[in-house]
User: Which sequence fits this backbone?
């Protein structure tokens, strides 16, 4: 049986792309998508994402009494942000088919919540 | 430079800054007055260009006045000159003087700490009151640049052990680790308070 | 207040003071000494006349405006603008990048100072030792420093406040993943106690 490969082109509008990036970022940083601000830009034909967002964090007072809390909560803010940057890039690539060249993640604040239950 | 020493040099810089006045207030006042003076000169110049009558003195008249300054009464010249020169000296002093603030540093490795003298005074007062078995309301502490004077008003009929108070205050000062250090002095008021 | 340029403040005050001193001394000298007065009389009017002639020579055709007037006005406006900017620069705030890390060819991670400020401020909220606290960030030679201004309750030892802040600073280091430099200012108002919080 022969299979005919149909080659098509998926075009994602900028608005939709924006929403995808915001959703992925919000997921990675564990905040509401509405709190995430996304900038899409072209850099010599390459796609560059700038994400501005708060990040979920634990209260310092609880860390004072519990050393291991940071690890349980997912690691340091720096490592979580670096991981998020990487994952945002690969997930947006996979979801939209666009090749994301650079992702700039800028953490603008924190969302201090109770410790998340382990799923 | 190792991280630790670059940190401590940053902290030294911070402590120095925190302990001296930034002179923001004086500089705002001076800058504003200069702006006003310049704005006035600019206004007079514009009026002269537009051939309108001047607000006070036209620029040409200003020039004539300065050139003919000797025609002014010498008394006025001297008085005005001295006043202006004195203001200048005051400003120079303000600019150059360290402007020490009523606060000092506390020894700490992790952070650069600066404490208001007021806070130290109230902590000393609490310890002095306890050691002297006096109500805290009857203790008044004043902290100056190098000395802390503890003033106690005893209850009538209940003398205060001055040495105990001094020892307690010194002990508290030792735990605080202040820089510049404070030398304590205890003064027991000769007049007591009845039923305090 | 912390980001004000202290050197600039003092320099401005010094320069203006010096100018006033020189002018004042000159005027006083003019009043005191007859020789100085005579010398001045000989020189000043001529200088003034030369300047006036010089200025009229440069008149723009038809008007009494000279390029010198225009230049002088432009200069005055520039100086005024600089000074006004100077006045309003006192105590400005701006977002400081707290950590600017992980610059790879595929992106960048930036953590704003606001993150550290919010975390620290939250941890000092509702503490019995403090009436209130304020957290800001400023730059000392390109190094961001967290400044914690704490209003201690009457009778609280300043050491207790410092320990409190340093404990939370250690926690901040752990949460952030990077060592944070901080300065602490402990103050105590005349307030003896604040209004107690309502219990529900």
Assistant:
């Amino acid at each position: 049986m022969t299979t005919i490969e149909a080659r098509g082109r998926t075009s994602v509008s900028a608005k939709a792309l924006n929403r995808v990036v915001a959703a992925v970022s919000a997921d990675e940083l564990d905040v509401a998508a509405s709190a995430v601000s996304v900038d899409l830009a072209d850099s010599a034909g390459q796609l560059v994402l700038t994400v501005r967002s708060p990040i979920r964090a634990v209260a310092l007072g609880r860390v004072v009494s519990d050393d291991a809390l940071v690890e349980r909560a997912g690691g340091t803010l720096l490592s979580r942000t670096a991981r998020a940057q990487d994952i945002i890039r690969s997930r947006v690539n996979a979801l939209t088919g666009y090749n994301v060249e650079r992702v700039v993640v800028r953490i603008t604040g924190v969302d201090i919540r109770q410790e998340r239950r382990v799923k | 430079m190792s991280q630790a020493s670059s940190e401590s040099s940053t902290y030294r810089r911070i402590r120095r800054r925190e302990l001296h006045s930034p002179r923001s207030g004086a500089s705002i006042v001076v800058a504003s007055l200069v702006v006003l003076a310049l704005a006035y000169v600019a206004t007079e110049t514009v009026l002269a260009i537009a051939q309108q009558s001047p607000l006070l003195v036209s620029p040409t008249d200003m020039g004539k006045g300065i050139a003919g300054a000797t025609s002014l009464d010498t008394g006025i010249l001297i008085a005005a000159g001295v006043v202006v020169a004195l203001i200048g000296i005051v400003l120079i002093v303000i600019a150059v003087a360290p402007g020490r603030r009523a606060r000092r540093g506390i020894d700490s490795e992790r952070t650069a700490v600066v404490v208001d003298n007021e806070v130290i005074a109230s902590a000393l007062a609490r310890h002095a009151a306890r050691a002297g078995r006096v109500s805290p309301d009857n203790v008044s502490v004043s902290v100056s640049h190098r000395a802390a004077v503890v003033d106690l008003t005893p209850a009538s009929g209940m003398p205060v052990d001055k040495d105990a108070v001094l020892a307690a205050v010194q002990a508290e000062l030792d735990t605080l680790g202040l820089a510049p250090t404070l030398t304590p002095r205890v003064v027991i008021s000769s007049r007591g308070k009845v039923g305090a | 207040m912390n980001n004000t340029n202290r050197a600039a403040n003092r320099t401005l005050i010094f320069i203006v003071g010096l100018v006033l001193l020189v002018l004042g001394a000159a005027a006083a000298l003019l009043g005191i000494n007859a020789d100085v007065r005579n010398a001045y009389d000989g020189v000043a009017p001529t200088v003034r006349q030369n300047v006036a002639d010089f200025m009229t020579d440069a008149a723009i055709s038809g008007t009494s405006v000279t390029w010198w007037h225009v230049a002088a006005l432009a200069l005055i406006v520039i100086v005024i603008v600089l000074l006004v900017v100077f006045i309003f620069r006192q105590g400005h705030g701006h977002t400081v990048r707290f950590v600017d890390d992980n610059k790879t060819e595929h992106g960048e991670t930036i953590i704003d100072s606001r993150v550290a400020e919010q975390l620290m401020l939250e941890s000092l909220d509702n503490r019995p030792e403090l009436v209130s606290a304020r957290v800001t960030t400023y730059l000392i030679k390109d190094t961001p420093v967290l400044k914690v201004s704490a209003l201690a309750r009457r009778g609280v030892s300043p050491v207790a406040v410092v320990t409190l802040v340093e404990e939370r600073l250690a926690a901040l280091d752990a949460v952030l993943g990077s060592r944070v430099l901080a300065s602490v200012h402990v103050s105590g108002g005349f307030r003896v106690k604040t209004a107690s919080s309502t219990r529900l």
User: Anything to note?
Assistant: Confidence is low (pLDDT under 50) at residues 191-200 of chain C. The radius of gyration of chain C is 29 Å. The beta strands of chain C are 97-104, 107-112, 130-140, 143-152, 181-187.
